[in-house]
Amino acid sequence: MGFFDLFKKKKDSAEVASTPEEQAAAAQAEEQKAEEQKQELEEGLQKTKSGFFSKLARAVAGRSTVDADVLDDLEEVLITSDVGVETTVKIINRIEERIARDKYMNTSELNTILRDEIASLMEESHSKREDFGLEVKEGTPYVMMVVGVNGAGKTTTIGKLAAQLTKAGRKVYIGAADTFRAAAIDQLAVWAERAGATMIRQEMGSDPASVAYDTLKSAVANGADVVLIDTAGRLHNKVGLMNELTKIRNVMAKVIPDAPHEVMLVLDGSTGQNAFEQARQFTQATQVTSLTITKLDGTAKGGVVIGISDQFHIPVRYIGIGEGIDQLRMFNRKDFVNALFGEQ
Ligand SMILES: Nc1nc2c(ncn2[C@@H]2O[C@H](COP(=O)(O)OP(=O)(O)O)[C@@H](O)[C@H]2O)c(=O)[nH]1
Ligand SMILES: [Mg+2]
To answer: Are residues 213 and 309 in the same domain?
Structure first.
């Protein structure tokens, strides 16, 4: 089974729509939901979008051809939109190559060209396989360890994910391995309850690896489908972080040999360049297999999604566009580019 199948509703024979009318109603409801989700994504990215395009409009105002000056300004627009220097340079180079090939580019074409280049960059940094090649074994819990600095949105993301998964009929176990603060455990407990998931906890200050171990043991014994492990985000120093995360991983592998199946790094998108720095530190401390970028609502720094996925070659799996339980979206690069540039 592919990873995303986890989110598809487990078929309960009694629930399957049988009559054509029921099927049509179900299809219509689904369509309406997709439309609402699209709108919500657009709203969530509104600040990034308007910030970016107003800068872009200023950069090309009164100019008709894309020349060296316009490219300089474009570079600045991309960098100040938190796309990151490395990715910005890549985009500018590609546009230069295009101009060299076509000899001439009108500033009115710039939007479309940028959109193309950004879309193709994002395609390159994401595996083409729909599931990023992740396989979920029926009968063994799929284990996801969630890492990231304090305040990035780990606990919230785990809560939202758990809710989506339980809604799809999955049995979810959550491990409270951020044992550093009592409030962190209580906050997770609230989310677990809202989501209808089971949380495994110990006292504050206990060994995170031991909590992770208990959680996996319990999950296996109770036939859970998914395990989400919350961790502390202390960046005391790199070696400390590395040791702590390695210890948690090793202990989990004792219960389920190939666990964790996924290590998700949660980054706060509203911190812009800081998010790049965190990605650097965490990818050095442990093997990160996916990213979630939170708090894209209310920030103009959504360009980080483009830069980080390009620079670290790690797929963005989810984006957070609000504090609400249903405001975590599976990241879809096409929808993202459409939300930023409009549909084509
Ligand atoms: N606006 C917004 N706030 C978020 C989002 N994700 C998390 N938060 C908020 O960010 C704060 C820190 O989140 P938390 O999950 O406790 O972070 P943790 O320390 O990494 O576990 C909380 O106030 C969350 O409500 C998001 O996508 N949008
Ligand atoms: Mg937390």
So the answer is: yes
